[in-house]
């Protein structure tokens, strides 16, 4: 779902000027419904940090098959149908015309939020028109100038408030969809790592040993081998094991390909098992892959394989843990499993770790608990001062989505929260709600 902003108004009030100001680069001319010959303009709109779909109806003037009045009615009805907010533009210098009133009638009948922009308000020539616009009964108008950028801040504030309400309504829908999905969700697992760390051996062992295996249907597609099975009643799917088919290629290329394959597989996975060789530990490439998994918001499990080949298994495990702690400090508690794909030792613990990581990754925390938590952590370690020495104030927190856990924190100076404070909040949240090893996302926003 995209937040949709429609611009309506009679010809020449300045709609196109505003449209171009808000439109991003990808300006699209979209064919209208068959039978209606007009084109609708559509673009990705942006105003400061707000992004939206922007629509207006161009070419109104050229249409000659109906009266202006009926065409306008049609235009506003259509805009209203698809819009989450309507920007109704007037020319303040011309004052309110009968055509404007026609639009206003239609908009009043709709239940969509409307923002009245009295345009061309730079200077004093628009003053009378601005006050007249109150009489349309569509709320307080914004004194605006699309050409000079006047009133943009106020437009932002109004849009922002409407957008927040819209988002909350839709988040509620998303959460429902999420939990429905979770019931029958297939855990998508990718096994990645450098060549020769033992991925194929491990996968074969895993699939061969899982007692609940429902006979792997290895479907060979052009780009990946796909395997479906169950583990403890949970459907699982192994995604994109493409790396294994590239054996024949030369070794140095293989190294690069392994990273590329891993990055590709991450896209399709919920959980990524990064396999490392216990005799070698984690190298730069492994950490690069681990970093990408977290950045892409996937759950990570690190496998220390070939544990049979090292004298001190505990030391090997500790070395990997230490390396993760220093090189991936933003995600504490990444699960590390040591095993031997060759001998089968400890292999059964991997799928349990994967399921656990998946569960954490899909966690939803109740809003009251979050807000209780927020007031406690901000009291015990108050946020720093932001701009002009004013202390940043946190108002409330919600979790709009899981997979990965994503939190919106409403605060007074969203852009001023320093990284150190974010890390503090993240670590506390991770600890207090038991979210080890999973990527956590924070979004700072101004309250409504
Ligand atoms: P549209 O037909 O509603 O899309 O209107 P346009 O964007 O094509 O603008 C119509 C005319 O109004 C053009 O000559 C614009 O230059 C002018 N115009 C647009 N915005 C402003 C404004 O903020 N102030 C003034 N004075 N003129 C404007
Ligand atoms: P891949 O390239 O990551 O798929 O690695 P393979 O599964 O093909 O294994 C590469 C080599 O490591 C092979 O010679 C395997 O026999 C060996 N190997 C795989 N797993 C283990 C293990 O757990 N212990 C030991 N000692 N060797 C292993």
Automatic annotation (TrEMBL):
Binding site for GTP 2: 193-200, 240-244, 305-308
SUPFAM superfamilies: P-loop containing nucleoside triphosphate hydrolases (SSF52540)
Database matches in CDD domains: EngA1 (cd01894), EngA2 (cd01895)
An annotated Gene Ontology molecular function: GTP binding
Annotated residues for binding of GTP 1: 9-16, 56-60, 119-122
Keywords: GTP-binding, Nucleotide-binding, Repeat, Ribosome biogenesis
GO BP annotation list: ribosome biogenesis
Keyword Metal-binding: no
Pfam families: KH_dom-like, MMR_HSR1
The keyword Repeat is annotated on this UniProt entry: yes
Boundaries of every EngA-type G domain copy: 3-167, 187-362
Entries under InterPro entries matching the protein: G_ENGA, GTP-bd, GTPase_Der, KH_dom-like, KH_dom-like_a/b, P-loop_NTPase, Small_GTP-bd
Signal sequence segment: none
Similarity section: Belongs to the TRAFAC class TrmE-Era-EngA-EngB-Septin-like GTPase superfamily. EngA (Der) GTPase family.
Function: GTPase that plays an essential role in the late steps of ribosome biogenesis.
Subunit structure: Associates with the 50S ribosomal subunit.
Listed name of the protein: GTPase Der
Source species of the chain: Limimonas halophila
């Amino acid at each position: 779902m995209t937040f949709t902003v429609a611009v309506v108004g009679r010809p020449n009030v300045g709609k196109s000027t505003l449209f171009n100001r808000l439109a991003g680069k990808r300006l699209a001319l979209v064919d209208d419904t068959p039978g209606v010959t007009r084109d609708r303009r559509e673009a990705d709109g942006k105003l400061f940090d707000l992004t939206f779909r922007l629509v207006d109806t161009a070419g109104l003037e050229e249409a000659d098959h109906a009266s202006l009045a009926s065409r306008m009615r049609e235009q506003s009805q259509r805009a209203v149908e698809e819009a989450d907010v309507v920007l109704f533009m007037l020319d303040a210098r011309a004052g309110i015309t009968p055509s404007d009133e026609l639009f206003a009638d239609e908009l009043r009948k709709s239940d969509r939020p409307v923002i009245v922009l009295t345009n061309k308000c730079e200077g004093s020539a628009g003053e009378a028109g601005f006050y007249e616009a109150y009489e349309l009964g569509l709320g307080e108008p914004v004194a605006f100038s699309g050409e000079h950028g006047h009133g943009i801040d106020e437009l932002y504030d109004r849009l922002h408030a409407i957008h927040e309400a819209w988002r909350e309504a839709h988040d509620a829908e998303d959460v429902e969809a999420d939990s429905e999905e979770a019931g029958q969700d297939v855990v998508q697992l990718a096994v990645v790592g450098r060549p020769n760390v033992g991925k194929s051996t491990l996968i074969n062992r895993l699939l061969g040993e899982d007692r609940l295996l429902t006979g792997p249907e290895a479907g060979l597609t052009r780009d990946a081998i796909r395997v479906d099975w169950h583990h403890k009643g949970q459907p699982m799917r192994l995604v994109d094991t493409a790396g294994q088919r590239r054996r024949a290629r030369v070794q140095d290329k293989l190294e690069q390909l392994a990273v590329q394959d891993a990055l590709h597989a991450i896209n399709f996975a919920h959980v990524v098992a990064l396999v490392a060789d216990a005799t070698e530990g984690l190298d730069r490439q492994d950490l690069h892959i681990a970093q990408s998994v977290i950045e892409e918001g996937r759950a990570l499990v690190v496998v220390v394989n070939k544990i049979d080949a090292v004298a001190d298994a505990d030391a090997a495990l500790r070395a990997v843990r230490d390396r993760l702690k220093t090189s991936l400090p933003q995600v504490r508690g990444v699960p590390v499993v040591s095993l031997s794909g060759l001998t089968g030792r400890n292999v059964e613990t991997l799928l349990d770790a994967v399921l656990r990581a998946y569960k954490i990754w899909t966690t939803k925390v109740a809003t009251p608990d979050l807000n209780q938590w927020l007031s406690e952590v901000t009291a015990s370690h108050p946020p720093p001062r932001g701009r002009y020495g004013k202390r940043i104030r946190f108002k409330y927190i919600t979790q709009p989505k899981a997979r990965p856990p994503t939190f919106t924190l409403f605060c007074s100076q969203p852009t001023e929260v320093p990284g150190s404070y974010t890390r503090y909040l993240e670590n506390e949240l991770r600890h207090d709600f038991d979210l080890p090893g999973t990527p956590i996302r924070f979004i700072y926003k101004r309250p409504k």
